[in-house]
Amino acid sequence: MVKDPWWLFAYWEIRSETERSVRNQLLPSEIPDLRSVLRVYDVTDLEFPVRQAHRSFDIPLSGLATSWYIETNAPNRSFVVEIGLLTASGRFFMLARSNQVTAPRAGPSEVIDDAWATTDELFWKLIGSSALLGSGSSPTVWAQLLLRNAVPGSWSSGTLAGMARPAMVRGFWCRVNADVIIYGATDPKARVLIQGRPVAVRKDGTFSLRVTLPEGTQTMTIEATSSDGRQTQSITPVVSLTSAGSLGTEPGIRPLPTARPSIRRTP
């Protein structure tokens, strides 16, 4: 089973007749130093065991263990685990083989498209009932925040029982907010600062930080320093959320600017 991008969890039950059958294949000289191990195979994009795994590593088991947490330190990779007996000479006798699992990514996808875009009507169908029933639950809080910050006139026609939608007003309104996800990778022992603030570096060297983007231009300094402090690399993305154009309005209604985000990077 997958625990998170860096860890798996394996559990097993070996029949006594299966273990006896394997032990009968051992030489008398191999029995004294015999060990039980988990052998972990990286089988990403492979038809295993028809094709050889990219790599494998062994985990010695202790006592009468029937489960184990496995640190793979390899997000977005596929794995198969075998439990077996390993002799001092390196001969491995499999007792059982697991199903194949794929660990999730450790960061946001590079793919940016409209596949998950939705309409206001579908949005309300998806969260409406949970927002109404979940007293104190996160959907309720979410819906309340959406209503509180909603753009007037932006909702579809119809009603959602028990929840008032924003009142319709004359004129055309537009509001844009944006979050920026900064992510990258470096030496796992390096120290990373974003805007002078330490950011955790994972065991595979990746790091990420989500920042809310206010209107205007923001300069974000990212510094990675080697563990011995002798080398430092700095990257400075410049991110802008700027207004462009104008909206015609009726008297008494203040226009909101349209906005578009842009990003440029300087070394």
CATH superfamily of the largest domain: Immunoglobulins
Rg on CA atoms, Å = 28 Å
Largest sheet: 6 strands, antiparallel
Oligomeric status: single chain
Mean model confidence by pLDDT: 76
Could you give the distance between the termini?
Answer: 42 Å
CATH-defined architecture of the largest domain: Sandwich
- Dominant shape: elongated
Q: Provide the succession of SSEs.
A: EEHEEEEEEHHEEEEEEEE
- CATH C-level category of the largest domain: Mainly Beta
Low-confidence stretches: 129-142, 149-169, 247-261
Tally the structural domains.
3
Structural class: mainly beta
Quick structural overview:
This protein has 267 residues and is mostly beta strands. It has helices at residues 16-23, 120-133, 138-148; strands at 2-4, 7-11, 35-42, 55-60, 67-71, 78-86, 92-97, 101-102, 178-185, 191-194, 197-199, 206-213, 216-219, 222-225, 232-244, 258-266.
Task: Give short descriptive properties of this protein.
267 residues; mainly beta; Immunoglobulin-like; 3 domains; 5-stranded antiparallel β-sheet
Fold and architecture overview:
It is a single chain. The chain has 267 residues and is mainly β. The two termini are 42 Å apart. It is elongated and about 85 Å long. It has 3 helices and 16 strands. α2 (120-133) crosses α3. Residues 129-142, 149-169 and 247-261 have low confidence and may be disordered. The protein has 3 domains: 2-102, Immunoglobulins (Immunoglobulin-like, Sandwich), CATH 2.60.40.10; 111-169, no CATH class; 178-266, Immunoglobulin-like (Sandwich), CATH 2.60.40. The chain is 12% helix and 36% strand. The strands form 4 sheets. Strands 10, 11, 13, 14, 15 and 16 form a 6-stranded antiparallel sheet that branches. Strands 3, 4, 6, 7 and 8 form a 5-stranded antiparallel sheet that branches. Strands 1-2-5 form a 3-stranded antiparallel sheet, with no helix packed on it. It has helices spanning 16-23, 120-133, 138-148; strands at residues 2-4, 7-11, 35-42, 55-60, 67-71, 78-86, 92-97, 101-102, 178-185, 191-194, 197-199, 206-213, 216-219, 222-225, 232-244, 258-266. The relative contact order is 0.11.
